[in-house]
Amino acid sequence: MKKLLALAVIAGGVLFVVKRNKAAKAEAELWRAATAPVPSTNGTTPAKPAGASHS
After folding, report:
1. Secondary structure in 3-state letters for the chain
2. Please, which of 25, 26, 44, 48 could form a disulfide with 52 given CB 3.0 to 4.6 Å?
3. What would the pLDDT profile of 12-32 be if each residue is shown by its tens digit?
4. Which CA distances in Å does 17 have to 7, 9, 27?
5. How many angstroms separate the CA atoms of 9 and 12, rounded?
């Protein structure tokens, strides 16, 4: 009975880790898509924000 309980606990832990990793990957993909540069529709490059050039 203890072996079955231990197996269930291990299986639950593995499922938890897999689910958390899948959620983290989906979150990272959303951030990648949200912060990706948007191509210009008129063929020009976007202007840099004021104060962006700190050379």
Report:
1. CHHHHHHHHHHHHHHHHHHHHHHHHHHHHHHHHHHCCCCCCCCCCCCCCCCCCCC
2. 48
3. 999 999 999 999 999 999 999
4. 15, 12, 15
5. 5
What is the rounded CA–CA span in Å between residue 44 and residue 6?
62
What angle (nearest 5°) sits at the alpha carbon of residue 34, between those of residues 28 and 37? 120
Distance of alpha carbon 9 from alpha carbon 51, whole angstroms: 55
Q: What's the predicted TM-score (pTM) here?
A: 0.57
Tell me the C-alpha distance between 36 and 16, whole Å.
Answer: 30
Query: What confidence category does residue 5 fall into, taking pLDDT thresholds of 50, 70 and 90?
Result: very high
Phi and psi based region of residue 43 (left: phi greater than 0; alpha: psi -120 to 50; beta: remaining)? left
